[in-house]
Design goal:
- By secondary structure, the protein is an alpha+beta fold.
- It is built from 15 helices and 31 strands.
- Strands 6, 7, 8, 9 and 10 form a 5-stranded antiparallel sheet that branches. Strands 1-29-28-27 form a 4-stranded antiparallel sheet, with no helix packed on it. A 4-stranded antiparallel sheet has the order 2-3-4-5, with no helix packed on it.
Length: about 725
C-alpha cells in the first residue's frame, strides 16, 4: 500500500488551484471580450438609430398678428423671437413672440397706389430676407429685413429694415402698373455691394429684365400665371397656362432656352410653382394635389428641364413652403392635412391632420426648427423635429437622382464649397471600394503567401526554414503608414511611368514559375536525388531576376511599338479608360505586400503541423510527394489555411493607412484596375475630423463603422463555421 507524502499533496492542491484560477481567468477574459463587443455594437447603434427616426411636428402656439391685408410672405428671425409678414397692401408687419400689443410694428413699403388694388411684390427668403415691392406704378423698391441681437441679461433680437442704397431706385420699368415681379440677389453674401436682378410682367404683357442699371424688354403672347427666378439670377421660369418657358439670363440679356408643353408631360394641370432650396429644382403644384420635381438634366450636351419625381402629398388645393437650406418642403391642403416631404430621399417624413383651414401663407424658420402658418390673422406655430431628412434607406442603399446628374447614381459626396450643395451620402460606393481593395489585395497575396507557405513547410530544409519563416514574419511588424507612404510617393509614379513593364511582370512571373515546375518534373528522379537540398531556390531566384530584367528591357520597346511611346496617354485617350496615378493596382500590390506575412505565417504553421505519420504513410503506400501534398497534407491543413486567408481578408478590409495614402480616395464604383477607390475605414479616417457632431454626416460615418463592424463579425463567424466543418471533415485522416 502506497502513501502520498504531504508535500506531494500540497503540490497537487496548488496545481489544481492554479488550473482553476487560469481556467476562470481565461473564461472571464473571453466573456469580457464578448461584453466589449456587445457594448461597442450597442454604442454604434445608439448613434445610428436617430438617422431613421420619423419627423414630428407639434403645435406650440396660436396667436394673432394684425395685418392690413392678406399675408403674402411670412417668416421668423434666426432665434425665433420675431415674426414678420409682408401683406398684399405692401405693408411689412413685425411682431415679437410671445405677442403683446406694444410689440407690433408696421411699415408701409408701397405708397401712392390708390389706383392699384394690389402692388406687385417679390421676396427672397433668407435669414435676412429681401423684399421687392412696387412703390408706385412702374417703380420698384427693394429692402432687406435684418435682425440684430443685443446681449444683456437676456438676448434680445431687434429688427432693422434697410433700403438697398446700392440699387438705383426708383427703377422705371414701365409707365403702367406691374402684374408680377420676381427678385434675385445673387451677390447677397458679398457685403454691401448688392446688385439685385428684377424681372417684371407689365399689364402690356411685356417681360422686363432689370440688372445693373440696364433694362431689356420682351413681348409675350399670353398672360403669365406664375414666375420664379433662380437665386443666382441666371434662370427664369415662366408659366403661361400649360406652357412652361425657361429663360436664360446672361449679364443684362435674356433669351428663351427651352419651352415645355406641360399638357404632354403631366396628367394634372399646374396651379403654382415653387423653387426648392438652392434654386436648382422647380416644384410644380398640380390641381389634384400632386407635387412634381423638375431640374436640369444634360441631354445631347445641353441642359434640359426634366421631370424627375412626382409626389402625392395632398388632396385638392394646397400650399407648399420649402426649407431655406435643405430639400424639404411642407405641404398643407384644404382638408387640414399637414405633411413634410424630402425631395431627394423621396420620403414623406410626416403627415397629420392638424389644420382647420387652408393657410394663406406658410413658412419655415431659418433653422427649420419651426413651421409658421397664417390664416385670417390667426398664426400657428409648430415645433419641427426633423434633423436628418436627407437620410433614408433609399438614399443610403439605392441609386438616387441628384440635381445636375444625368441619371440616378450611387454617390458619396459629403461636402462642397457651394452653398446650395446637397450632401450625397450613399454608402454603396465605400462598401464597393472596400470589397474591391480586399479582392485585389488577396488576388496578389494569396497565391504568393500560400505557395511560399507550402514550399517552406513541406519542401524546405529545416535549417533554411528557421531563417526564412522569422524573416517573413518580421515584415508584418513594418508600420503600414510606411508601406502606404512608399506606395503613394514612389510605387504609384513608378507604375505610371512603366505600365508595360508592370503588366509584363504580372504575366511573366506566374508563367515562369509554372514553366520551371514543369522542367523540374521532367528531370529524371535519380538526377534530382543527387542535387543538394533547396536546389530549386538556386534556380528560381536567378530565373525571376532574369524575367524582371527581360520585362524591364521589353517594356519601353513594347510601349514605343504598340502605344505610341506613351502607354498612359494611349489608355486614357485611345481606349477611353480612366487612369488615376494612385489606383487599385497600386493599392493591391501594397496591400498584398502587407497581407502576405499574415497569411504566410498562419498557413505555414498549419501545413507544418500536419502529423508526420500521415505524410510517411502516404509515401509508404507509393504516393508521390505532390500527391501526398495535394491529397493528404493540404486537406488536413485546410482549416488552418482557410483561417489564414480569412485573417488576410480581415486585415485587408480593416486597413486604413495604406488605402488612405496609396489611392486617390475617390468613392467611385468601377472595377477598373487603374482607377481609385475609397474604403469604409479610409472614409471614416478622412471625414470624421471634419464632421459636425450630431449631424447627418457624422451619424452616417458611424453607420459605415457599424457596417464594417457587422461585416467583420458576420464574416468571421461564417469563416469559423466553415473552418470547423473542414476540421471535422478531415480530422480522421
Amino acid at each position: 500500500m502506497t502513501h502520498t507524502s504531504p508535500s506531494l499533496k500540497d503540490a497537487n492542491r496548488v496545481r489544481r488551484l492554479k488550473d482553476t484560477f487560469t481556467r476562470h481567468t481565461v473564461r472571464l477574459g473571453g466573456v469580457m471580450v464578448l461584453v466589449t463587443l456587445l457594448l461597442l455594437f450597442f454604442y454604434l447603434l445608439t448613434v445610428v438609430l436617430p438617422l431613421f427616426h420619423q419627423a414630428s411636428m407639434t403645435p406650440t402656439g396660436r396667436f394673432s398678428v394684425p395685418t392690413p391685408a392678406t399675408p403674402h410672405f411670412i417668416g421668423a428671425d434666426n432665434r425665433e423671437q420675431l415674426v414678420y409678414a409682408l401683406d398684399d397692401s405692401g405693408t411689412l408687419t413685425v411682431a415679437r413672440r410671445p405677442l403683446q400689443v406694444d410689440q407690433v410694428a408696421t411699415v408701409m413699403l408701397a405708397r401712392n397706389l390708390s389706383d392699384i388694388p394690389r402692388p406687385a411684390m417679390a421676396t427672397v427668403p433668407a435669414t435676412a430676407p429681401f423684399m421687392a415691392v412696387e412703390i408706385k406704378p412702374g417703380q420698384v423698391g427693394v429692402w432687406q429685413l435684418r435682425f440684430r441681437a443685443e446681449y444683456g441679461d437676456s438676448t434680445s433680437v431687434l429688427p432693422k429694415l434697410r433700403r438697398m442704397a446700392a440699387f438705383p431706385l426708383p427703377v422705371i420699368l414701365d409707365s403702367s402698373a406691374l402684374r408680377q415681379l420676381a427678385l434675385a440677389v445673387p451677390d447677397s453674401l458679398h457685403g454691401e455691394n448688392i446688385a439685385p436682378v428684377l424681372v417684371a410682367v407689365t399689364h402690356k404683357q411685356e417681360l422686363v429684365l432689370y440688372r445693373s442699371g440696364r433694362i431689356e424688354r420682351h413681348s409675350l403672347s399670353e398672360p403669365v400665371d406664375n414666375m420664379a427666378l433662380s437665386p443666382d439670377g441666371q434662370r427664369l421660369f415662366v408659366r403661361q397656362g400649360s406652357t412652361l418657358t425657361v429663360w436664360r439670363i446672361h449679364g443684362q440679356q435674356m433669351a428663351v432656352r427651352e419651352t415645355i408643353n406641360l399638357a404632354n408631360v403631366v396628367e394634372s394641370p399646374v396651379q403654382a410653382m415653387t423653387l426648392l432650396a438652392g434654386g436648382r429644382s422647380l416644384m410644380l403644384h398640380h390641381q389634384d394635389g400632386g407635387l412634381s420635381q423638375w431640374f436640369d438634366v444634360v441631354k445631347s450636351g445641353q441642359p434640359s428641364l426634366t421631370e424627375v419625381r412626382l409626389f402625392q402629398p395632398a388632396k385638392g388645393t394646397f400650399v407648399a413652403s420649402p426649407e431655406l437650406h435643405r430639400k424639404s418642403i411642407a405641404v398643407a391642403d384644404e382638408q387640414g392635412g399637414l405633411s413634410l416631404l424630402h425631395a431627394t430621399s423621396e420620403k414623406q417624413r410626416y403627415f397629420a391632420a392638424m389644420l382647420d383651414t387652408l393657410p394663406q401663407a406658410m413658412a419655415f424658420s431659418p433653422r427649420a426648427q419651426a413651421l409658421i402658418t397664417a390664416t385670417d390673422g390667426v398664426w400657428q406655430w409648430f415645433a419641427v423635429d426633423n434633423p436628418h431628412p436627407e437620410v433614408s434607406v433609399h438614399s443610403l442603399w439605392e441609386k438616387v437622382w441628384y440635381e445636375g446628374y444625368a441619371e440616378p447614381q450611387y454617390v458619396w459626396q459629403s461636402t462642397s464649397a457651394d452653398d446650395t450643395f446637397e450632401a450625397k451620402l450613399s454608402v454603396v460606393p465605400v462598401i464597393f471600394g472596400t470589397l474591391k481593395v480586399a479582392l485585389f489585395a488577396l488576388a496578389f497575396a494569396v497565391p504568393m503567401a500560400i505557395g511560399a507557405a507550402i514550399y517552406t513547410a513541406y519542401f524546405m530544409s529545416s535549417g533554411l526554414r528557421k531563417v526564412v519563416k522569422p524573416t517573413v514574419e518580421t515584415i508584418e511588424a513594418l508600420p503600414t503608414v510606411i508601406i502606404g507612404f512608399l506606395a503613394g510617393l514612389w510605387l504609384a509614379p513608378w507604375v505610371e511611368q512603366h505600365l508595360p513593364t508592370v503588366f509584363l511582370l504580372l504575366l511573366m512571373v506566374p508563367l515562369c514559375l509554372l514553366g520551371l515546375s514543369m522542367i523540374w518534373r521532367m528531370i529524371p528522379r535519380y538526377v534530382r536525388r543527387r542535387l543538394p537540398d533547396n536546389a530549386q531556390i538556386l534556380v528560381i531566384i536567378p530565373a525571376l531576376l532574369l524575367i524582371a530584367l527581360v520585362a524591364w528591357q521589353l517594356g519601353p520597346w513594347l510601349e514605343h511599338l504598340w502605344f505610341g511611346g506613351d502607354a498612359r496617354r494611349f489608355i486614357t485617350h485611345e481606349l477611353g479608360i480612366g487612369y488615376d496615378q494612385r489606383n487599385a493596382l497600386v493599392v493591391g500590390i501594397a496591400m498584398g505586400f502587407a497581407v502576405v506575412p499574415t497569411i504566410f505565417s498562419i498557413a505555414e504553421d498549419a501545413i507544418f503541423s500536419v502529423p508526420p505519420h500521415l505524410k510517411s504513410g502516404a509515401l509508404a503506400l507509393g504516393a508521390t510527394h505532390w500527391q501526398t501534398l495535394t491529397r493528404v497534407v493540404l486537406l488536413t491543413a485546410s482549416p488552418g489555411i482557410f483561417s489564414a486567408v480569412m485573417m488576410g481578408l480581415g486585415r485587408a478590409v480593416g486597413e486604413t493607412m495604406i488605402v488612405l495614402m496609396a489611392t486617390g480616395n475617390t468613392p467611385i464604383m468601377d472595377w477598373n484596375l487603374l482607377e481609385g477607390l475609397r474604403t469604409l475605414s479610409a472614409n471614416i479616417a478622412v471625414e470624421m475630423p471634419e464632421s459636425e457632431v450630431g449631424s447627418s454626416h457624422y451619424r452616417v460615418l458611424f453607420l459605415t463603422a457599424f457596417i464594417l463592424f457587422v461585416f467583420t463579425f458576420v464574416f468571421n463567424t461564417l469563416a469559423e463555421l466553415v473552418r470547423q466543418r473542414l476540421r471535422d471533415k478531415y480530422s480522421n485522416l
